[in-house]
Design a protein that fits this description.
Blueprint (H helix, E strand, L loop, with lengths): L1 E8 L5 E8 L2 H10 L3 E7 H11 L9 H16 L4 H11 L3 H15 L4 H5 L8 H13 L2 H56 L7 H15 L1 H19 L2 H13 L3 H22 L4 H9 L5 H15 L4 H8 L4 H13 L2 H57 L1
Antiparallel strand pairs: 1-2, 1-3
């Protein structure tokens, strides 16, 4: 049986939309007529989804991070409660609030009923379920612990979303201050300074160097601002093109790990993702080499990913995981020590969870420290720029006043 999307009219003339299961579109229309409905459209849910995907290509994921976390949590809860997978997907399809989610769940259920595994069904929707998500689902199916894996996966998605939100909120205030400061300085240079300059033009007075420089900058801002925007756009395009190449990107990521303040944040964020994913995979009974490979794919820093590849080679040769990660000199020592303790006690998963939680809290602390440091620095920088502009305007006035006296 397959999932079909339908539109039909009831006896009251109201148009109804939904999803039903049938062997064919003709059988679906027969079902609707048996319910007293006049079918208008009966088509495969998968074809509808593919049509939407092609029409909205480039619009990003159809499932938001929040929706993905909620669906994963609901899947885990129903599976742990003992409900079969096809019935679980049916329940999620019926209670979905958004049409796209309803049709997505119905499409996946149709593929599962058709004999595909859950992971294979998710592969038909790669923009809604990324590679690591499907790898974890496949591991859960292989080990028979799909409900547990999905529960841990939901925890991971929720924690990851919360961490991203905290980091974004922490940097929101500095970004707002920077934007306002830029706007104020632009207004002063493009409007206030030229108005004051007109006063001194008629006096034929020799202006101080600071005032002359400020007038030149003001003239540039008023007449050549478009050139600055073009230059910035070209620079961004060049940088993105260079970083798209493997060699320069690897060199940049290596430098980023050693950068003051930002290096620790990048290292901490990637460590949290790596430890969390590796913990989920080991809990599901995934072999360590495969788990390392999958966990490494979550890293956004190419230098750390290269170190994970080296660690995989060492583990394959017989080296312990803690020693292999320790030799990379990339991950925090706390993570290496906790993994070593887990290897000694036979409970690596618990230690990976502790490492992830601890590094997450440390990342929040470092982020708050950085933003608390940036806020006064931005205010001082803004005050300094405004002070220079005020001095450039006041110095000719003071000199003119001295000449009059």
């Amino acid at each position: 049986m397959s999932a079909f999307r339908y539109e039909a009219i009831n006896l009251a003339g109201k148009t109804l939309k939904g999803v039903l299961e049938a062997d064919s579109a003709r059988a679906g229309r027969t079902q609707l007529r048996g319910l007293g409905l006049t079918p208008l459209v009966v088509e495969l849910a998968t074809s509808r989804l593919q049509g939407e995907r092609s029409r909205r290509l480039g619009a990003g994921r159809k499932l938001s991070q929040r929706e993905q976390a909620i669906l994963t949590r609901q899947l885990a809860s129903l599976l742990i409660a003992g409900l079969p997978l096809n019935e679980t997907l049916s329940v999620l399809s019926e209670q979905a609030e958004r049409d796209y989610i309803r049709e997505l769940m119905a499409s996946i259920r149709g593929e599962v009923i058709g004999g595909h595994s859950f992971a294979n069904a998710l592969e038909q929707h790669p923009r809604d379920f990324p590679d690591i998500y499907r790898a974890l689902v496949a591991a859960g199916e292989h080990t028979g612990k799909l409900g547990i894996v999905l529960s841990r996966l939901a925890d991971y998605i929720e924690q990851s979303n919360a961490l991203k939100q905290k980091i974004l909120l922490a940097f929101t205030y500095p970004a707002v201050v920077t934007f306002i400061a830029f706007g104020i300085v632009t207004f002063l240079l493009s409007y206030v300074v030229p108005q004051v300059a007109n006063v001194f033009t008629s006096t034929k007075q020799a202006l101080p160097f600071l005032t002359v420089a400020m007038l030149a900058l003001s003239d540039y801002v008023r007449h050549w601002w478009w050139a600055t925007l073009i230059a910035v756009g070209v620079l961004v395009w060049i940088v993105r093109g260079v970083l798209a190449r493997p060699g320069p990107r690897l060199s940049f990521d290596r430098w980023l790990l050693t950068a003051p303040l930002a290096g620790r944040i990048v290292r901490g964020y990637n460590t949290v993702r790596f430890a969390s994913t590796l913990g989920i995979l080991t809990a599901a009974g995934v072999p360590i080499l495969r788990a390392l490979q999958a966990a490494g794919e979550t890293l956004s820093n190419r230098a750390m990913l290269a170190n994970i590849q080296d660690a995989i080679v060492r583990v394959r040769e017989g080296t312990s995981l803690s020693r292999a990660l320790g030799n990379t000199k990339t991950f925090p020592p706390v993570l290496v020590h906790l993994i070593r303790s887990g290897e000694a006690t036979g409970d690596v998963t618990t230690m990976l969870d502790r490492a992830s939680d601890g590094e997450s809290r440390e990342l929040e602390r470092r982020t708050m420290f950085l933003t608390s440091l940036l806020e006064p620095l931005l205010i001082l920088a803004m005050g300094g720029v405004v002070l220079v502009i005020v001095l450039a305007v006041m110095m000719p006035i003071i000199e003119l006043n001295n000449m009059v006296q």
